[in-house]
Amino acid sequence: MMRILIALILREIATTYGKSAGGYVWALLEPVLGILLLTIVFSMMLAQPALGTNFPLFYATGLLPFTMYNDLQSKVAGSIRYSRPFLAYPSVTYLDAMLARVILNALTHAVVFTIVVVGIFVIYQLPVVVHVGEVAEGMIMIVALSIGVGTLNCYLMTAFPVWERTWGILNRPLFLASGIFFLYDVMPAEAQRLLWYNPVLHCVSQLRKGIYPMYDASFISAEYVFGVSFVLTAMGLLLLVRNHRNLLER
């Protein structure tokens, strides 16, 4: 199994990031440009961000975890279609394909997050008071949720191709509803009651809690996120176990 995973990971590296270092440079440069754009736009409208005093750090701790969730769930959802030629071999399963994509992309996003955040601390000479355990918990929540959403979508998108476009439309509002630009704590009570059920908001806020020790974020429920993740993963795996042979023939 380890040899299969390594082979699939190497294939993923070659196809996603290219055979040179340029692909990984873009993986780092793309979020940096996004953070820079948000910083320029919002710093012209606001005196200071919703948390702390540094605009790049605030938007990095919102945009990067959301990007991690969005990319991971998309990669897991496309596992069967992406690795269909290899799944014809009995020794390679759809679980191998999914696990390989999770490992590589989760590590890539974790490294990008670390480089960007550390770079902001160094460039702006910010006092470093980071709770690594809280940040790690936020990362684990993101990975778990991405696996759950991606596993269920892996079946739905392969069985019903129209679902991919439908999901793209349904998933788009999360960019505005996941606490990237505004904190949950300052939103109106009616909005809070609705947005609390967005698990991505809990993940983003948990990660921010580790970067900003003064941020309480008492509304966060890791149990809720892991519960949703478990249910979605179980549903997705059940559907894949029962139908994966039919899916490979499509």
From TrEMBL:
Membrane topology annotation: Multi-pass membrane protein
Residues spanning the signal sequence: none
GO molecular function, one term: ABC-type transporter activity
Segments passing through the bilayer: 24-47, 102-126, 138-157, 169-187, 224-241
InterPro entries linked: ABC2_TM, ABC2_TM_bact-type, ABC_2_transport
Presence of the UniProt keyword Membrane in the record: yes
Listed GO CC annotations: ATP-binding cassette (ABC) transporter complex
Record has Repressor as a keyword: no
Lineage top rank: taxon: Bacteria
Main location: membrane
Name of the featured protein: Transport permease protein
Organism expressing this protein natively: Paracoccus aestuariivivens
